[in-house]
Amino acid sequence: TTLHPADAYALVLEEKGGGRKLPIIIGQSMGGYVGQVYSELHPNTLKGFISIDSAPLQREYTTALEIWLLKRMEPVYRLYPWKMLLSSGTNSVSTTEYGRQLMHSMMMTYDGNKKRYARLSGHGMKMLGEAIEANLPYKINCPALLICGKKDRAGSSIRHNKAWHKNTGIPLEFIPNAGHNSNTDAPEIVN
């Protein structure tokens, strides 16, 4: 069996802290989803949760079409030429040269192996779709903060964060002039 990343968090926390201190999970994008799954699998074990450019996993926020697409992204990634994927991935997540360079560097790990990139990215999107489809409460039972770049163009992050804030009362901070990687676009505000 494969260990879910949220359970891997739990194992590391147990090994490092022996369960003595409650952690604060800060998750950017997919890391925010993993933090929500951690909270679901290990309720009342967080001191705090900060979501950066992520979105809620509760089913009510996502359309059936969005879930359907999330679960089928690998073949979509395979259809795009690598240079187009690289350009789109690099330019769509960040508003700053620094952020775009970081994304470009990460994506270049897969240069010459688009199939691997498509498989890995597609698997992540499929896991996300399945987590939403599971229709679990994903309740955050600790102090929390939502952070979202005002220029975030990844999926429906802005729409989802507005609704998440409205429905839960979790404070939401929009970061001016920041995209999906607001922690690299505006580190002086986010970090």
Descriptive notes:
The protein has a four-stranded parallel sheet, covered by helices on one side. The model has no long low-confidence stretch (mean pLDDT about 90). It has helices at about 5-15, 30-40, 65-70, 75-80, 80-90, 95-110, 115-135, 155-170, 180-185, 185-190; strands spanning about 25-30, 50, 145-150, 170-175. The protein is globular, with a radius of gyration of 17 Å. Helix 8 (about 155-170) links the parallel strand 3 (about 145-150) and strand 4 (about 170-175). The protein has ten helices and four strands. It is of the alpha/beta class. Helix 1 (about 5-15) packs across helix 2 (about 30-40), helix 4 packs antiparallel against helix 7 and helix 5 (about 80-90) runs antiparallel to helix 6.
The main β sheet shows up as: 4 strands, parallel
Report the count of strand segments: 4
Q: How many helices in DSSP terms? A: 10
Radius of gyration over all CA atoms, rounded = 17 Å
Sequence of strands across the biggest β-sheet: 1-2-3-4
Helix-residue proportion: 40-55%
Listing every helix as H and every strand as E from the N terminus to the C terminus, the arrangement reads: HEHEHHHHHEHEHH
As residue ranges, the low-confidence spans are none
Shape: globular
What secondary-structure arrangement, pairings included, does this model have?
Layout: H1 5-17, E1 24-28, H2 30-41, E2 48-52, H3 64-70, H4 73-79, H5 82-92, H6 97-108, H7 114-133, E3 144-149, H8 157-168, E4 172-175, H9 182-185, H10 187-190
Parallel strand pairs: 1-2, 2-3, 3-4
Summarize the structure.
It contains ten helices and four strands. It is of the alpha/beta class and 191 residues long.
